[in-house]
Write a structure and sequence with these properties.
CATH superfamily of the largest domain: Glycosidases
Shape: globular
Distance between the termini: 101 Å
Number of helices: 23
Radius of gyration: 34 Å
Length: about 1100
């Protein structure tokens, strides 16, 4: 280390006047293995033309941010250990355009604070402070009467055992279901004046990795801190800021726990806060104290806004790397020879590289070192450069080396890497992107080649030459160049060249030169897409998918790329098919890993705003080459307010109707009917009541309960107190469910009809959220139901988040499949999402217990899928790593591409799902009645579950039926919705239909409530009506139209009417077209009213009204 300090004056003396200044900073480098690395870094930056200045250790201390404006770059040889206050100063420096060269990243992963003249980590400070500070006992379990404490649990049979042994509380939980708590109440705050800290002495005994400590305030607000446990006794200091608000009093969200108002203390194990370990948990707590916080402790432990700098920090932007045999140099490090294999390193989550033109990125991300396995599998970038050409960090360049082995930097390859990186940081010209504007183009489509350049230097750059070429089959049919390119300081500029269309595959490349030497370059593949001459679409019939004449089951993943993990840029993350987010290098690597684990299908989504980037076309081409099909969600919007013109443009512009890689479209993403989603349809609800009951008064008489109204008398809908509890309102709830059934059919079938006009080749459905979940007991929402959706979509797509747990929690998914078969046995049912996240927020990592739980859950879920005969599953989701906008990690693969335990489960079950036999035919039908339960399907399941599972245990395949199953309009029970007597003035329970379209004889579409001119009707005095049977009972017509129950379609005008029978009998969800003449003697003005009746039994269905003007 002494040689380093001797070197600094020599370096400074040798530095030329006017050179840019590099500040070199580190903590406790003297005697540290990082001291020689600091010397090597100083030499590299001096050689690159910088004047290097060593900064004192207290440079970032003192409370006032230091002035860094005189530095061009800060060099951090041990970036992993920094004072806590340094991070915000570094962020401010980057916002001024300053450069950062960080070795041993993640940056500041050990945040240091001073105590008695020495540096220590925050956790170490907590322990030291707990040992040294005066404190007041609050709970000493050696003398505590634990009978005064309140146990809490989700399932009484699984409640934890609480005993006192050896002076400590011992909590033992054989098997936990959700949570287990132990609470003590206080009449007033137990914190003495001036005390704000909570000190807990605890340890893990068996399998408990964390302990959640909760304070509840007098107003009911809840505050929870999660602390890691070790097998050894430790003292933990918790500040008010460590306690995070938990779902309780909404007005307190965004505030801080106030110890003066504390009223109860709770010790907790919970899936939400302590991990998913659920078996044989045990921990001990000896004491709980309160203590004051000194000014020094407050400063050291005070929470601060996390600094988030891409490629630098926080630590969740990095990941462990396994199965690495070698490093490969990339970018400016190419040619340094064998980089060697450091003794310790991490990977950086990938970001898009500069390949491709006009991508709209504010930065250039360039990997410098790539870890590879012995077989050449990519394991991750270990070092990278990120240069900001726009945005809040414009002009700043960050070099991040996640090599934690100081010896590597001192090796010949490591020294050369430092030297080249220093020279690259000094280079002002940045290639932000370069290549072609599309990665896959349509047949006959022209391209542009070009480059986006940025000058991050303080002076103008002149004399640049930009060359672009497109190479097809080894030749270079197109090449163009622009000379004498000049860039002013801070200027971004695009150079573009139009390119004629080409056939097949090509390579697009761009090269930037200055003085005959290459400054930067990029190259990538470009492909042309043509539809197959004989496409093979996925079809569906008899409740199954087919491909090429054989049964096909989609088995795969909801895909988003690994380049979106650990980012805070939500638009970049969400719109991953946009120009700036999409990188074929990352995508191809991900897709190959998906296929390798056994995926034959992926779910993806496209936003309308990203349509013209054509990246979906590239993605589908790559998937097709790997033998995978795609379920494509078209966003934004839902059929409830269908953005048809946008959807139409997405399908037609990308020629999706001709693309047999697609097997289905999703038109909505996890809709429910919560208050905010219900209220916009209150007017529709009112109109439905009047149409089906004749009047509001008739409905109230039929229900024996009032129509819900708000304080101003406006019609509204149910309240959550009406759900799950039977009462006078029960018939009204049943009517509201029928209204929702009808509304969903109207909206979703219309959307499907529109799509089928331009694309008859693909299935249409949507991501159904909790629809079909038999155990969902939410009361403020009404889940969509399969009952009428079965006629509006081409496949059922429920999600499985209600199934997270052990086998007993998973297995009700079989009932979802059974219910889908009842609703429409002709439709396949796939699990559109299923998964569980494994991220632990307390340790900011993925613990082994959570990975083990994920493995068990997937294994159980596959068992349910196979035993129930489901038609496929698409797991949520692909990439491992931290998802910052929801604090989760649902990934099924490690970020480095190696297997998680669950990966092997997926790979093992892939052939079992794809080749599973057809499900056994139902041999037992269990009767159910949704109208008897205000909580709908969950009430049905509660009533049937004993009988259902007894039948399964006995080897039966149970199905479902109602009193209307197998009946017709002639013999179905005449009972009304809500199990009321059928009066002719209320909606029959088993008879219903919908008018999908009403046209004039001349083909003009008429909407209910619309006005048509008499001239539109006089030449062709008839209507053409398309209708669908929505009820369970078959509607008799055609050859069956001979007596009571024959369904008649009637049109009335004034006092005249004309009726015709249905041209054929309609089973449930069958559709027909009926031509009905206008009544004789009709004349304008008048109203035409359509209606349906089961002859001599009851009217039913909608009654659309059309006004005729003279």
């Amino acid at each position: 280390m002494r040689s380093f300090f001797l070197m600094i004056p020599l370096l400074l003396a040798a530095a030329a006047q006017g050179q840019p200044l590099a500040g070199l900073y580190g903590v406790e480098l003297d005697g540290s293995p990082w001291g020689p690395v600091a010397g090597a870094a100083a030499a590299a930056f001096t050689e690159a033309g910088y004047t290097v200045e060593r900064l004192p250790e207290d440079f970032f201390s003192g409370g006032t941010p230091p002035d860094l404006s005189r530095f061009a770059v800060l060099v951090l040889p041990d970036a992993g250990r920094l004072p806590k206050d340094a991070l915000s100063a570094l962020e401010a420096f980057a916002r001024q355009g300053g450069g950062i060269a960080a070795l041993n990243t993640p940056l500041g992963r050990e945040a240091l604070v001073p105590l008695n003249g020495r540096w220590m980590t925050v956790p170490a400070f907590r322990e030291a402070y707990a040992a040294e500070t005066p404190k007041t006992p609050l709970v000493d379990f050696a003398a505590e009467d634990i009978s005064t404490w309140r146990p809490g649990f989700r399932t009484a049979e699984m409640a934890g055992k609480h005993t006192v042994a050896n002076g400590a509380l011992l909590v033992e939980i054989a098997k936990m279901d959700g949570w287990d708590t132990f609470a003590k109440d206080f009449a007033s705050s137990p914190f003495p004046g001036g005390h704000t800290a909570t000190l807990v002495r605890a340890r893990a005994v068996r399998n408990a990795t964390h302990l959640a400590v909760e304070w509840t305030e007098a107003d009911g607000s809840r505050w929870i801190a999660s602390m890691p446990l070790s097998p050894e006794w430790r003292d933990y200091v918790l500040t008010p800021e460590d306690f995070h608000f938990w779902e309780s009093v909404p007005a307190r969200a965004g505030t801080v726990f106030n110890p003066e108002n504390a009223r109860s203390l709770t010790l907790t194990q919970a899936f939400t806060h302590t991990g998913y370990a659920d078996r044989d948990l045990a921990y001990e707590v000896a004491t709980v104290h309160t203590a004051p916080l000194s000014e020094e402790a407050s400063a050291a432990l005070r929470g601060h806004k996390p600094v988030k700098l891409e490629t630098l920090c926080p630590a969740y932007k990095f990941f462990p790397v396994a199965d690495t045999a070698r490093m490969r140099a990339r970018g400016c490090l190419e040619g340094i020879g064998d980089p060697g294999l450091p003794g310790a390193f991490m990977g950086l989550h990938p970001r898009p590289t500069p390949n491709g033109f006009d991508k709209g990125r504010a930065y250039a991300w360039e990997p410098l070192l790539a870890a590879e396995s012995a077989s050449g599998d990519y394991r991750g970038a270990v070092a990278a450069l990120m240069t900001h050409a726009d945005g809040p960090f414009k002009g700043s360049l960050w070099a991040s080396f996640a090599v934690q082995d100081p010896a590597w930097y001192l090796s010949p390859a490591g020294g050369e890497a430092l030297a080249r990186t220093a020279r690259r940081i000094k280079e002002p010209v940045v290639l932000v992107d370069g290549g072609a504007d599309f990665f896959t183009c349509l047949e006959g489509q022209e391209l542009r080649l070009g480059a986006t350049l940025f000058n991050r230097g303080p002076e103008a750059v002149e004399g640049l030459r930009v060359t672009a070429s497109l190479t097809v089959g080894g030749a270079a049919p197109f090449e163009a160049a622009e000379d004498a390119v000049r860039l002013a300081p801070g200027e971004s500029r695009q150079i573009a060249f139009p390119v004629p269309a080409f056939d097949g595959a090509a390579t697009a490349s761009v090269r930037v030169e200055r003085g005959g030497e290459t400054v930067a370059a990029a190259a990538h593949e470009v492909r042309e897409w043509k539809p197959r001459a004989t496409p093979k679409y996925v079809t569906a019939a008899d409740g199954r998918f087919e491909l090429g004449g054989a049964r096909w089951r989609p088995h795969g993943i909801n895909y988003m790329p690994s380049s979106g993990v650990a980012t805070e840029d939500q638009p970049y993350f969400e719109r991953w098919l946009s120009r700036r987010s999409y990188d074929p290098e990352v995508i191809q690597r991900d897709l190959e890993r998906c296929r390798n684990m056994g995926c034959n299908a992926l779910s993806v989504f496209l936003y309308y705003d990203d349509l013209k980037a054509q990246n979906l076309l590239d993605l589908l081409r790559r998937m097709d080459a790997l033998g995978m099909k795609a379920n494509v969600s078209l966003r934004p919007g839902t059929p409830m307010e269908f953005p048809w013109e946008q959807v139409r443009e997405m399908i037609t512009c990308l020629r999706l109707a001709e693309n047999d890689t697609v097997f289905a479209y999703d038109l909505a993403w996890e809709p429910q009917f919560r208050p905010s989603e219900r209220d916009p349809f209150n007017k529709d609800w009112e109109e439905w009541i009047i149409e089906r009951y004749g009047s509001l008064e008739n409905a109230e008489k039929d229900w024996g309960a009032p129509v819900p109204r708000d304080a101003r008398g406006n019609i509204t809908n149910f309240t959550e107190e009406m759900i799950g509890v039977e009462g006078p309102w029960s018939p009204m709830i049943a009517a509201y469910r029928r209204f929702l059934d009808t509304l969903l059919y109207a909206k979703y079938s219309r959307a499907r009809d529109l799509i089928r006009r331009i694309d008859p080749n693909h299935h249409v459905s949507f991501r159904m959220s909790m629809a079909g979940d038999p155990t969902d007991t939410q009361r403020n929402t009404m889940l969509y139901d399969f009952a009428y959706l079965g006629g509006a979509v081409d496949l059922f797509e429920p999600e499985a988040y209600g199934r997270i747990g052990d086998w007993e929690r998973v297995k009700p998914g079989a009932f979802t499949q059974t219910y889908a078969r009842w609703a429409n046995p002709a439709l396949p049912m796939i699990w559109a999402e299923a998964g569980v996240h494994v991220w632990d927020m307390a340790s900011m990592s993925v613990p082994e217990d959570k990975l083990a739980f994920q493995e068990r859950f997937y294994t159980d879920f596959y068992r349910m899928v196979l035993e129930s005969g489901a038609d496929g599953v698409l797991w949520w989701w692909y990439p491992g790593g931290f998802r910052s906008n929801e604090n989760s990690d649902y990934g099924v693969i490690n970020p480095d591409g190696t297997d998680r335990p669950v990966t092997a489960v997926i790979r093992k079950h892939a052939p079992l799902v794809e080749n599973a036999p057809d499900p056994a035919p139902e041999d037992l039908r269990l009767a159910f009645d949704r109208d008897s339960h205000t909580n709908g399907l969950s009430g049905v399941y509660t009533a049937l579950q004993g009988e259902y599972w007894d039948a399964v245990t006995a080897g039966k395949t149970p199905g479902l039926r109602t009193e209307g199953t197998g009946t017709t309009s002639a013999d179905c029970p005449l009972v009304a919705v809500g199990n009321r007597p059928c009066t002719g003035s209320n909606p029959p329970k088993y008879l219903d239909a919908f008018f999908d379209a009403v046209l004039t004889g001349g083909g003009k579409l008429l909407e209910s409530g619309a006005t048509v001119s008499a001239a539109d009707l006089s030449q062709t005095p008839f209507l053409v009506v398309t209708l669908t049977n929505l009820g369970e009972a078959a509607l008799l017509g055609g050859v069956d139209a001979a007596g009571p129950g024959t369904v008649m379609l009637t049109v009335t005008a004034g006092g005249a009417a004309e009726s015709v029978p249905l041209p054929r009998t309609l089973a449930r969800f069958e559709r027909t077209r009926v031509r009905v003449p206008l009544p004789k003697g009709w004349q304008a003005p008048c109203d035409l009213v359509l209606s349906l009746e089961a002859r001599e039994r009851t009217p039913f269905g909608p009654r659309p009204r059309i006004s005729v003007a003279p």
